[in-house]
Amino acid sequence: MLFRVSVYTPAEVVEETGFTLDTLRYYEKIGLLERVERNAAGQRRFTEQDIGWLGMLRCLRDTGMPIAQMLRFAELTRAGDHTIPDRIKLLEEHDRRVEGQIDNLQERKRYIRNKISYYRSVL
Amino acid sequence: MLFRVSVYTPAEVVEETGFTLDTLRYYEKIGLLERVERNAAGQRRFTEQDIGWLGMLRCLRDTGMPIAQMLRFAELTRAGDHTIPDRIKLLEEHDRRVEGQIDNLQERKRYIRNKISYYRSVL
DNA sequence: GCTTGACCTGGAGTCCGCTCCAGGTGGCAT
DNA sequence: ATGCCACCTGGAGCGGACTCCAGGTCAAGC
Known about the structure:
Two copies of one chain form a homodimer.
Chain A: E1 7-8, H1 10-17, H2 21-30, E2 46-47, H3 48-62, H4 67-79, H5 84-121
Antiparallel strand pairs in A: 1-2
Chain B binds a DNA duplex through helix 2.
């Protein structure tokens, strides 16, 4: 009996990750996504790990990390376990930036709410 | 005795608002900033109100409002007090989006921290 | 009276992150 | 077996938000 490792078609990955197909191809082209496997016809077949990695990318992207830095993270990840301390450092720095973003947004939100209150007061 | 209304040179506004001079000119060109006054030599002289308005723009920009929508807000503001309900509506919608951004960032931050913990655990 | 530097203008260029296109292949449902 | 649809590739194009440039003008301090 053969094992059938779960494998995802492009359409499934789009569905699963929320990235467009064009974005997936783009990420592969620039090296954010390691060379994805292909079937006989040359069509992409993504693995479970690819999905996981794309989840990480989505998280980094959605917290405003520029592609250049995601690329650095990707390279560290490919380079092997000895880069884990570097990866921790990178993520910790990013975490601090995210924290800063949140604080900043909270501050701005106060400003906006004040403005709304002011507008209400002059009606 | 004459009043000297406080007026700001471009350099002062850059200092005060954190926008670059190019950005200020750009904002004026596209109509985000109403025609700024000039001295005899044609140089910009910003008023207190300009500074206040720029504060609002900075807030909207830093919370991710696209320029097209800031422009809409600018037009409402210019149109007079009868647009205040519309302005409130616009800001409330934006406030909700900002709230969403914050929630999203907080979620992502959890993911990043988990990842960091995981990396720590395998060291 | 001359240099310096803060300004001015219109318009071109840049950067980022995709997004779209043309032209082509392969495989599956009817 | 045929039609259709999901894919493929390389490369061009796009939208947003600036940013830079060339060439020119004034104003003031030395």
